[in-house]
Amino acid sequence: MAKQERAGRTRQAVLLAAADTFADAGFESASLVDISRRAGVSKGALYFHFVSKQALADGVRTAAADTIGLAVLRALRGRGPAVQELLDLTHELARLLREDVVVRAGVLLGLGGRPAGCGVGAVVSPAGSPPEPSADAWWSLTAVFRTLLDRAAAAGELRPGLDREQAAGLLTTLAAGLVLFAAESTGRLAAEAVGGLWTAALPSLVPADRVADYRIRAARGA
């Protein structure tokens, strides 16, 4: 059991070091030597857990997707107003991109000239090249937004006649912007900045007299 725990800690240390390196230098410039040094392990220990740089990138992407997936599940299973769940989900995505280097690196690894859907549903390129984004990734996120919008419509939260398909597309575009900000400057992912986006977007979703019912800024500590 102790051996398994040590192996697990080593694997996590390597994954975190890889995420740091990928976030700082990108996939192409990252070296396994640098990653092993950051992790404080030998190259042999690194290769025991990840056989190549591509495998490391895969591991970072998978870990990022798992973390984002949990955030999405919490939103889908939330018992509060569906529009508030949407707001809180985007704030949580921004927080993860801002504070969690594994999530940020996993997303940045998918930026192949266009966003990769926050690490969800990505596919892997041939060995030696960074993972390429999947068209299904953004569709998955759009489907999450559409589910919450459908729930909001059933509860009478949305503006009468709102096209939920277009609204889901608007929210996907907002999320895509957060991903691009992660590549540019994490400061633009601050809670105040995301709240500002919602100040502009929320009146297009809910009646004017309901806007004040929702918390546009992130909850304290988020």
Notes on the structure:
- The chain is an all-alpha fold.
- The chain contains nine helices and no strands.
- The chain has helices spanning 2-29, 32-39, 43-49, 53-77, 82-99, 101-108, 135-154, 164-184, 191-201.
- α1 packs across α2 (32-39), α1 (2-29) packs across α6 (101-108) and α4 (53-77) crosses α6 (101-108).
- The longest helix is centred in the first third of the chain and has 28 residues, at 2-29.
- The chain is elongated, with a radius of gyration of 19 Å.
- The two termini are 35 Å apart.
- Residues 112-136 have low confidence and may be disordered.
Give the low-pLDDT segments. 112-136
**Count of beta strands:** 0
What is the succession of H and E elements? HHHHHHHHH
Q: Please summarize the sheet with the most strands.
A: none
Give the amount of beta strand, in percent: under 5%
Shape: elongated
Keywords:
single chain, 222 residues, mainly alpha, 9 helices, 0% strand, elongated
